[in-house]
Give the backbone structure.
Amino acid sequence: MFFGSVKNCHNTKDFRNLAKKKLPGPIFHYIDGGADDEITKDRNTAAYDDCDLVPNVLAGVKDIDMSVTVMGQKIEMPLYCSPTALQRLFHHEGELAVARACEKFGTWSGLSSLGTVDIMRMHKEISSPKLFQLYYHKDKGLNNHMIELCKEANYEAIALTVDTITGGNRERDLHTGFTSPPKLTLNSLISFAIHPMWAFNYFTHEKFDLPQLSKFVNAGTNIAISVGDYFTKMLDQNMNWKDAEEINKKWGKHFCLKGIMSVEDAKKAVDIGATAIMVSNHGGRQLDGSRAPFDQLEEIVDAVGDKIDVICDGGIQRGTHVLKALSVGAKCCSGGKFYLYALGAGGQPAVEKALSNFRNEIERDMKLMGCSKISDLNRDNLRYREKYK
């Protein structure tokens, strides 16, 4: 039975339930929702259920090493928090709370172009590896500004998001009226009133801001707008492979493409010199009816896994999900919802609890699989109930 406190959150579902209690409706549903009928959002997790693990025994697994090297950085667990937008809407410490938790667990943290903490502040306060998520805006001066700041701040990698050429149809946001920043309407005021702690923290801490953007655009900071509308109006719909290659050359360090779902695109990522790809459908928030990352993982790993770091992003809710993706051939996994629920449920301590849950699950499940290190995992460990080709 779930009793509604961070210490009693033993899995992602528990954190989701607690976040639903603590956050105003529009904000919870922004985290929780997907596009259209949310078929892809649900499939992202369900895909793992169609694959079973086959354990080995008597393998001597007292000592477990779950470290992996991805995008040039050794991390202490094969899972990191994927960059996501607007985190100070979920908790007043936002990205800093998440990054501090990631630092404690020796894994990557991320900051989005639509993040609510400044690039340089994150650099000054967080010493662990940082991944910046670049949204390619129509304003090329803004794009260059963010890249140069990341260079100055010595971020280890940039991930160019390539699946937001237009905003997905996020109907939950249309129903709830979610915008950034939140509009003060009768419905939102009622929602704030019945979540007084969230409202107190939001209105009494520093003013909500998108510091990477606010000197260039008003949308999202001073002018309320939905995320889908922001993508459609502000991002460059003419972005192409040449643009991605030029960004890679300007950046000059580890470069990841976030949102790759086809073998053809994975091969092109290798051709332009990317060092990593995140196999991702944006959490099912863009093209509903598209494949789940885990369903696409095998063919992408087979095509480019020896040339580029392949990261499985999306739908991760259990340590066994991570082990299944690693057994297929992913270098590591990442996700958003699992830690955003925790952030909304209780800030940094809750994110730490979520990461601790995963670390404990991965360690325990590796022992039960008869694996003492990540390289012991392989496709011999897996059986598929039905192939989704």
About this structure: The mean pLDDT is 93. The chain has one domain: 6-384.
